[in-house]
Amino acid sequence: MEMTGPIRVVVAKPGLDGHDRGAKVIARALRDAGMEVIYTGLHQTPEQIVDTAVQEDADGIGLSILSGAHMTLCAKVVELLRERDAADITVFGGGIIPEADIPELKKLGVAEVFTPGASTGEIVEWVKGHLRAGAAA
Question: Taking 70 as the threshold, does the pLDDT of residue 26 lie above it?
Fold first, then answer.
């Protein structure tokens, strides 16, 4: 069955990081591009993020991580999605993530990682092309 309607993305700030300006900028850019965005707010656990994504029938989860806990937090989100039989929800992330960690994150199941300097346009185009391709066009 083909999905209709706009791409639905949960934008989340996992862990103890209290800086959410970047997440809000991305959430707004995705919304302005015609997507439905659910922003979870600060200090979310991986369990809360996955619960929201499943309840909202999200196509993707965008994780914003500046705390240095990206390996643990991303791995937990991907693991919980598999446990909930929701591995079809695409996980992508961004923030202060060392280049050396990106290949490992991708091995864990994170589809893409955006580091500082990535433009909102680049992120929007990637999401359009990788989450229910063409749904937001």
Answer: yes
What is each CA distance from 130 to 27, 42, 89, 91, 98, in whole angstroms? 17, 26, 11, 10, 23
136 — phi, psi (to 5°)?
-95, 0
Give, in order, the Cα–Cα distances in Å from 119 to each of 29, 60, 66: 10, 19, 17
Length reported for the chain: 137
Please give the span between the terminal C-alpha atoms of the chain, in angstroms, as a whole number: 19
* Contact between 113 and 106 (Cβ < 8 Å): yes
Task: List pLDDT tens digits, range 62-107.
Answer: 999 998 999 999 999 999 999 999 999 999 999 999 999 999 999 9
* This prediction's pTM: 0.93
